[in-house]
Each structure stands twice: as structure tokens, then as C-alpha cells.
Amino acid sequence: MKKKMILGLSSIALLTFVPSSVLHGVAYTNAAEYSSTLGDTSDTLETKEVTASPGSTSTELQSLLDYNKDGKYKLTVHIPAGSYTLIKELRIYSNTTISADTDAKLYKTHQKGPILSNDMSQDRGGYTTSENITIIGGVWDSSPIADKNKGTESFRFIHATNITVKDAEISNVPVNSHLITFAGIKNGLIENCKLHGYDGESPKEAIQLDIVHDNVVVPSNQSKDIKYDDLPCDGILIRGNEIYDYPRAMGSHTSIKGVFHKNITITKNTLHDLTEAGIKAYNYENLEISSNYIYNVGVGILAYTYISNESNHYLNALSTTVPEPLPDDYNIKITNNTIRDINKSTSSAITSWGDGIRTIGTYTRPLNGVTIANNTIEATKRYGIFLEKTPGSIISDNTISNTADSGIYLFRECDNSTIKNNTLEKLGNTGGNAGGIGLYSTSNSLITDNTITSPAKNGIYLSKQSNTCNITGNMIYSSGGNAIATYDKSDNTTIYSNFISGYSVNGIYAYDTNSADISQNKIYGNTGSNVKDGIHIQGVTDLDNAFSLKDNYISSTRRYGIYIDANNSLLETNTITNAMKYSIYLDSNSSGSKLFDNKIDNSIWQN
């Protein structure tokens, strides 16, 4: 049976007691969410609770935390309502909970060290230097030093397991500071916190996930005690927080070669009024970003393995580190988020593109295994979804509207991707170049069952040798250019069973390509002044082209139903009605072409 200890602390503390079962349920919520392979041993410890006097000094608060310096207790330190001036860093030990009143206001007045950090005096590396630490409640405010030219985090935890920060307000740090840093943390929870306030332009994260690499990447007052071992974070849940008035809400801007943060879940947060990124995930594996509300930021969600100035941010591992191989599948899932009002930053210190969701890989480190599904994205200054060197991606069931550039764009080496069941509307300004779905140098991909309305230019377009793609079952309305287009030797495209209504140039357009299979599409044009043809093919000159047009239905074109300027084309069993000029027109480079059983205004034309 555990004993309850009663201590006399004169004016420093007033003691209260809560049954240990209640304490355990509050203090170790994250231990229930994530099963630590190391286990929670705090139940074998004697329970102790102490309460600070209102207005206690840093020294008095530290004296309460020091009851657990030798790790004897499962300690709870209560901080009641009141104002507290902190002139030095507080150290917290394993199996300790700080429970602060919502009206407990703790003001940081020192520039050296964070408000609170775990004790590193016995650090040997790994996840076990500290265990089972919980911070609940309180207002942790660094405004007294916010305008200084240097400062540090509010909370910093290194080499630890089962760390919880919840129901706290943390705010107002100087330039180059974070509000919470987790470095080498296993099983961490940040929940229902309000995080805000940053003085400076240099982009930093409110919540930073770091790798314990050196005292530049992870600086600390305790750096002389830290065993730097390239330890990443593993098993972090960031849930239900509000983060605003900061450059970035959360993530990482530094990574180590062959080291990956793993099993990160970011869900149900509200992220707004950020000069750069809502979420910035650098070399994360097994990442879930779900059900967040993100608005008035520079880029909503950024997941990446490469950044242009990576010599300063992608560092060689320590000599003692055994690097992991690059993942075949990063397993990144970005789902059910609402993202709106995405702006381009005007600051030279910040890279902010104006995309709702963006991913970036590189030739040597492609970002494989990304799923982007069921997100709502609106009012972006650039793309809704922009992927670069992200092969095998799945983009499905997203709703995207009012983008300045294309709704979905896959740029270079996003091969073997699937874009399906997305709804896109009002993409770009009238007369602009924005399209619905675009592929650039991306092959073997499927674009299917999407609905695209009112793109400024092309509904779906392939360029720069985006070969062997399948465009099927899409519905495209009122495109400002071509409804479907292939350019720049984007060969062997299958364009099948799409519904096209109202386009400003051509229904289906192929230019400088060598081949396509175009069949069973329904194309309803109009008689606007710039409208040309239902299907317009210009193959590569002097090559044996291979265009096959079968079973297409084309109605109401201002010029030709089908225009062909490509050798050896096959036109078979197409139906064309109400073409204002010729139903089928073969131009001078169409030698060897064959026409069979095409229906023209309910008659048969057979060559």
C-alpha cells in the first residue's frame, strides 16, 4: 500500500492530495495513446503532491520540482492562479506532473535557457533520460523578452519517453525561438494548447520536432551533459491545438542523412495567420495529417525530402550513427483537412509559395507513398495541390476551388500516380493559364472520374513527355482552353469515356505528340468565337503516328468535328453532328489515315 506524505514547506507550498488513480488518468494520457516499448514504471513509486504558493519565485518552484530529483516519487506540482516571474530555467524530472491553473501566468524574464526543460544531467542517449513527464494548463508567456534579439524555446524536451503538454497557453518568444521543442522524443503528446506570438521574421516553428545531432541543431544550457546521437522523434501526437501569429505552426526544417522522424500524427488542429507554413514535415515516415483547419497561411501543408538550400539543413550523420536506407514507401497520408486563404509571402526571409498542399522530392530521394484524400482547398494564390518528384501518389476525393493556378499539378517524376474522384471548380482568372489537372514529365499515371468546372485554360493537360497516361471517366465543363490536351511528345495516352461540355478552343487536343487512343468520349461544344474543333490532332511531322479515334460522340462545333494532321490515323464509328464546317477534316500530313463507319449528321461516311 502506498503512503501519502505530508510535508511542511512554510510559505513555499500548500499541500493538497488527490487519489493516485485520478492522477494517473490525467498525467499519462499519452501513455494510453501510445504503448511505450519501455513501459510506464511510475505505478511502483510513492505518490506525492505539492502546491506552490501564489507568486512563487523560480527558486521556490524549482524546490518543488526537486523533490523528484532522485526519482523517488510520482510527483504532482500544482501551480495555482497568480502571477509568477521566472528569472531562470526550470528543470523537471521523470514521473513528474505540473498541473497549473488556467489563470496561473508564468512570465519568462531570462534569455538563457527555456522556461522549462527536462533534466539532462544523467543523459546517456536514447529515449530513457526522462520518462513520464506531463505539463497541464498554465499561461507560459515570454513577452518580457520578446523584443530581444535572442532567446530560446518555452519548453524543451530531449531524449525522453511519454511527454505530454496539454491545455496550456504558450506565447510570445523572441526571434529564432520555438514554443515547444521535442528532440529525440518517443511517445509525445501536445494537445489542446494555444500557441502564438513570435517577434521576428526568420522562419521558425511553434512546435519543432528535432533530431539530437549537435548543439547547433539542438542547443541547450545542458549541452555539456547531452550525448548527441542523431535520435529522431518516434510516436508524436499533436492534436486539437490552436496555433497562430507565427511563421510556421509545426514541423522541422533540419534533417540528418539516413535519419527519419516516424509515426507522427497531426490532427484536429486550427492553424491560422502564419507567414509561412501550417505544417512543414521534412523527412517524416509514417505521417498522418488529418482533420486540421488551416487558413491565412503561406502554404497549408508541405511534406518534403529536399529543399534548395539543403547544405545548411540536410546534414551528414554522426560517425557513430548507422543510417537507415531511404524508404520505399514514406506512408504519408494527408486527409480530411480544410485549407483556405493561402497567400504568397512578400518577405525575403521566408519561402512561401501559395499552395494548399505541396510535396517535394528529388531524383535521388523521391517522396514515394503519398496519399492526399478528402481535403477541401479553396482560395489559394497558386496551386491547390502541387507535387514534385512524388511517384506513386494517390490524390482522391478532394474538393478544390478558386485557385490562382491549376487545381492539381504533378511536376516531374511523379510517375505511377492516381488522380481520381476530385471536384475542381473556378481555377484561375479568365484568360489566364490555370488548368484543372496538369502533369509535367510524369508518366504511367491515371486521371479518372474527376469533375472539373471553369478552368481558366485546359481542363486536363499533359506536357513534357508525360507518356502512357490514362484519362478516363472525367467530366469537364466550360474550360477556358481545351478540355483535354496532350503536348510535347506526351505519347501513348488513353483518353476514354470522358464527358466534355462547353470549351473555348478544342474538346480534345493533341499537339506534337505521336500517339493516342481516343474512344467513347462525349463532346458537346458551343459556337463561341474562339471555339474550334471537337477533336484536334496534330501529330509529330514525318513520323508514323498512331492515333486511334473510335466511338466518340461530337456535337455542336464551330469549326470541325474532327481535325487530323497526323499520318496513319484511324477514325472508326465516331458520330458527329452539327459541325459548322466539315465534320471530319484531314490535313496535308494525314497520309495513310483510314476512316470506317463514321456517322455524320445521321448519315454514313465511309472511305
UniProtKB/TrEMBL annotation:
SUPFAM superfamilies per UniProt: Pectin lyase-like
Signal peptide start-end: 1-24
Alphabetical keyword list: Repeat, Signal, Ubl conjugation pathway
Pathway assigned to this chain's UniProt record: Protein modification; protein ubiquitination
Top-level lineage group: Bacteria
Family annotation (Gene3D superfamilies): Single-stranded right-handed beta-helix, Pectin lyase-like
Protein known as: Parallel beta-helix repeat (Two copies)
Organism of derivation: Anaerocolumna xylanovorans DSM 12503
Right handed beta helix domain mapped to chain residues: 329-500
Repeat as UniProt keyword: yes
